[in-house]
Write a structure and sequence with these properties.
Shape: rod-shaped
Number of strands: 0
Order of helices and strands: HH
Distance between the termini: 57 Å
CATH topology: Methane Monooxygenase Hydroxylase, Chain G, domain 1
Radius of gyration: 30 Å
CATH architecture: Up-down Bundle
CATH class: Mainly Alpha
Helix content: over 70%
Largest sheet: none
Strand content: under 5%
Number of domains: 1
């Protein structure tokens, strides 16, 4: 009879251990999901900050009152301006991408 008590005690011990293990695995999975989400949010904020810095840089370049002093300098400024226009087109795509990512984040959280 005493042997059966040890067997039952062992069975309960193993069941408790398995339950705690399953709980720990669930917590680990939830934590990994939370950390993944936090990583995405932080990456989004970093990308937005970089985009804002880029916008500021282009804004400063466009607020230059220099219109050139001769034909050569005007042509150089025109080339520079065309480069800014290309950069702004790329920036527009980047801003659109950030807005769509924000919509996904808003829906997820």
């Amino acid at each position: 009879m005493r042997c059966k008590c040890y067997i039952l005690e062992f069975i309960f011990f193993v069941q408790d251990l398995n339950q705690k293990w399953a709980s720990l695995q669930q917590l680990t999975s939830e934590r990994a999901t939370q950390l993944g989400s936090a990583h995405e949010v932080q990456r989004f904020h970093r990308d937005v900050d970089e985009t804002k810095d880029w916008i500021q840089e282009k804004d400063e370049a466009l607020n230059n009152d220099d219109l050139g002093k001769d034909l050569r300098s005007v042509q150089a400024l025109q080339r520079k301006h065309e480069g800014l226009e290309r950069d702004l087109a790329a920036l527009g795509d980047k801003v659109t991408d950030r807005v769509s990512v924000n919509v996904v984040f808003t829906a997820d959280f």
